[in-house]
Amino acid sequence: MNPNVKRVEYAVRGPIVQRAVQIEKELKEGVKKPFTEVIKANIGDAHAMGQKPITFLRQVLALCSYPELLEDNKFPEDAKKRAQRILDSCGGHSIGAYSASQGIECIRQDVARYIERRDSGIPSSPDNIYLSTGASDAIVTMLKLLVCGEGRSRTGVMISIPQYPLYSAALADLGAVQISYYLDEDKCWSLDVAELRRALNAARQHCNPRVLCIINPGNPTGQVQSRQCIEDVIRFAKEEHLFLMADEVYQDNVYAEGCKFHSFKKVLFEMGPEYSSTVEMASFHSTSKCYMGECGFRGGYMEVINMDPEVKAQLTKLVSVRLCPPVPGQALLDLVVNPPQPDEPSYTTFIKERTAVLAALAEKARLTEEIFNTVPGITCNPVQGAMYTFPRITLPQKAIDKAKEEGQVPDMYYCMRLLEEEGICLVPGSGFGQREGTFHFRMTILPPIEKLKVVLQKIREFHLRFTQEFS
Amino acid sequence: MNPNVKRVEYAVRGPIVQRAVQIEKELKEGVKKPFTEVIKANIGDAHAMGQKPITFLRQVLALCSYPELLEDNKFPEDAKKRAQRILDSCGGHSIGAYSASQGIECIRQDVARYIERRDSGIPSSPDNIYLSTGASDAIVTMLKLLVCGEGRSRTGVMISIPQYPLYSAALADLGAVQISYYLDEDKCWSLDVAELRRALNAARQHCNPRVLCIINPGNPTGQVQSRQCIEDVIRFAKEEHLFLMADEVYQDNVYAEGCKFHSFKKVLFEMGPEYSSTVEMASFHSTSKCYMGECGFRGGYMEVINMDPEVKAQLTKLVSVRLCPPVPGQALLDLVVNPPQPDEPSYTTFIKERTAVLAALAEKARLTEEIFNTVPGITCNPVQGAMYTFPRITLPQKAIDKAKEEGQVPDMYYCMRLLEEEGICLVPGSGFGQREGTFHFRMTILPPIEKLKVVLQKIREFHLRFTQEFS
Ligand SMILES: Cc1ncc(COP(=O)(O)O)c(C=O)c1O
Ligand SMILES: Cc1ncc(COP(=O)(O)O)c(C=O)c1O
C-alpha cells in the first residue's frame, strides 16, 4: 500500500463524522439517546442544512437534462435561452457528451467575463480558465503539477494554520513538504508577513519552498483579508519567487461591516506591471459555496495567471487524462457567472432568493459570535466571512488528562462528548491545526436560524457542564 | 514542475484532437477544405456522435434537478418515484448537497443488488461499493492506493498492449512501473497466460509486480474474453499474488455471435472458495458506455473484493479528501442499476430505446469489420464488443521514411494526413501501444450508420491513395 496515502488525514469527514452517522442509524433503530436528531455542523453543506436551491439555477439544469421541457411554457424564457445556449455548446447538444477537458469553451468565456466584471475590467482570457470537479479537484491538480524534487530539494508548500485539511491531505498524498504559517488569532485571524517570513526561513533548511496557499475568506477561521494584507502577501510572493494559490471559494460570503472581498488577481494587477506580469498565480472558485451552496454538482474553475506556457501545456495534458469535469456542474457554473440580468424575467426572483440567503448567513454569523462570547471559557472572533466559526475553548487540566488517558487529543475528546451527549457534530480544532496548547472547534453557521440558536444554546450548556465536571 | 506529469501521455485527447478542434474553427471561419465537417471518431462519446439520451434517465434527472416538476402530470409515475427516492436519500432532499464520500448509501445498495442479479445471485455488499467520478476516477484512485516502494521494489502494474491510455498515464503520474503484456492480434486480440507469465518474469528483474489490469470487453481492441480465458487469468493472479483490476465499463456492449460478457467476479466465485476468498480484486463500471453513453455526467462505481480491511479503511479515507462524486452522476447510475421494471409505465419505451441503441451498435460493429476487410492493406478483427475497432494498416516503407523525415511516428503521420484530407479524426495505434513494426489506428463505431458508411468509404479511398502515393 502507498505509504503517502496512510499519512493523509481529513478531519472534516473523520472519525467524529463516522460516529455521527452511526448514531443516526442507532436513532433510526430506536436506540434511546438524550436527543432525537444529530445536527451536523461539521461541513459547509448548505442544502443539507435546509437551504433551498436557487430556482433559476435548477430550472436551467432541468431543461438541460430533459430538453423536451424547452417546449413547456412553465419555464421562463431566460431559463430556456440559457439552457439552449449550453446545449448548443455540448457535443450532440447533450450534457451527456464529454466536454473539452479544460471545460466547455463558451462557459470558459462566460467565466472570463465574470472575472472581468468582478475585477473592474482587468482582462481575463478563457485560455487561462480550467473548469474543474469542484475546487477540490483543481487545487489537487495544481499542487500535483507544482510539486517535485527529492530530499532537501523537495517542494515546500506554505499553508495557513488553521487550514482547510484538503491542503494537508493533498500534500501528504504527494509527499510534498508542508510549511505551516500561523494566522494571528488575537488579530481576528489575520495574516502577518513577518510570520510568513519566519515560516519560510525555517523551511529553507529542509526543503525548497515554492508555493504559498491562501484561503480568503478563511476556512475554518472566517476572516476576510484586508486589501493591505493582500498587497503585502503578493509583494512577499514576488520577492521569494513563490507561486500563489488563492482559494477564493467564499468570495460572495462577506458579512462584517467594513469588510470587502478583494480578489488576489485584482490587487495583483493594481500593483502595476512589475507584479502583474511576473507573479505566477492560480485562483480557485466553486459552485459549492457563496449563495448557491450547490456542493453535489461538483462545479468549479481555476484561473491561472502568468503561468509558463510549457507548464500550462502540461496542465492541459494532465486534466485530459480524466477526460472532463462533470458537465451538469459546468452548466451550473455557467449560470453562476452569467446570472439573470435586470431586463430578464427571472431577475427579480433570483435577486430575492440570493439576497435572502446572504442576509440569513450574515445574521447567523453575527448571532454565533455574540452567543459564543457570552460563554465563559469560549472566545470567538467575528465571523467576517465564509461559513464557519473557529472559537477557542479553554479546557480544564483534568479534562486534558482524561483525554490523554482515553488516547484522544483533548478537543477530539470534547467534541466526541458533545456528540454523544447533545447530538451535535463539530470538528475538533486539531483537524485544522492550531497553536500548541490551544484548543478549538469548527462549527458551520449553516443551520436554519432557529436550529442554530438551539445548537449554540446546547453547546453553551455542554461547555459549562463539561468545565464543571473537570474542575 | 512535477517530472512525472511530463511523462504522462494521453493520446485520445492528444495533438491530433487538438488539430481537429483547430480545423473545426477554421471551417467555421470559412477556410476552404476538401470537406465540410470534421467527424470525430477518436473518442467513445456516444451522444457527441448523435445518440439520443434514454428518456427515462433524463426524466428522472430533470425531476431531481427541479423537484417542482414532481407536481407535473407530464412525467410518468415510475420516474417520479425514482426521483423521490433519490431526493429522500440526499441531505436536505437536494442533489446539491454533498453525499457520503463513498456515495449515497441507497444507491450503493442498488448497485449491490444489480451486481447480484448480473452474477446469478453471488452476494455483493454495499460496503464494498465505491461510487466515483466516472470510472477514470476510481481506476486512478485504486492505482494510487496500491503503488508503493522505490527502485527495484517499486510496484509494477501489468497492462495490456494495446491499452486504454488512462492506465499508462496514471502509472507515469504515480511513478509506477508499467509492465506491458501483449494481446494476440492473430487470435482476435485474445489474452494468453503464457504471455502474462513472460511479461511478469521479465519485470521481476527490475520491479515488484503487484497488480494486473484487464479491460473486458476491450478498448481499443473490441475483443470479448472467453470464460476460459478469465479463469486462466484468475488462476494466474492467485498464483502470483496479483491484485486484479477488471475494467468492465463495456459490460453491456457485446455484439458478436457466441460471445457473452462474464464478469471477473462471477467467474472468481464460481471457481470456489479457494479463489473467491483470497484473490483481491476491484471491478469498474461507468455510466459513460453501454446503451446509456452518458459520459458528461461522470458517473461510475467500483466494487472491491477481498480487500484487506485496513487497506479499505485507507481507501475510504482517500476518497473523502475530494468530498464526494458528483451527485447527478450518482443519481444517473442509480437508474442504470435500477431501470424500469415490466410492471412500470416507462418499461416499454425504456426497453425499446435500449434495444435500438445496442442493435445499432451491433450492426455498426459488423459493418465496420466487413468494409475494412475489403481494403487491401487493412486487416480488421471482428468487433466483438465495446465501441472500437483497431485495424492493422500496412504502410509502404516510403511512407514510414517520410514520417520519420517529418519527425512523426508513422501512424501519427497517416492519421494527420487523413484528418487534413478527409476531415476524419482517428487516434494512431501508437497512442495505445502496438507490437514494434506494426501500425494501427483506433476508430469508434459510434457515428450514425449512414455517416459511418461514409467514414469507412473515405478511409478506404484515403488508404488506397496514400498507399499509391508512397509505392
Ligand atoms: C477553502 C475551501 N476550499 C475548497 C473547498 C472545496 O470545495 P468543492 O470541492 O466542493 O468546490 C472547500 C470546501 O469546503 C473549502 O472550504
Ligand atoms: C476501458 C475504459 N475504462 C475507463 C474509461 C473511463 O470512462 P469514464 O471515466 O467516462 O467512466 C474508458 C473511457 O473511454 C474506457 O474506455
TrEMBL record, chains A, B:
Domain of life: Eukaryota
Pathway connected to this protein: Amino-acid degradation; L-alanine degradation via transaminase pathway; pyruvate from L-alanine: step 1/1
GO CC entries: cytoplasm
Domain Aminotransferase class I/classII large: 60-459
EC nos: 2.6.1.2
PANTHER family hit by this protein: ALANINE AMINOTRANSFERASE (PTHR11751), ALANINE TRANSAMINASE (PTHR11751:SF480)
Protein name, per record: Alanine aminotransferase 1
UniProt organism field: Lates japonicus (Japanese lates)
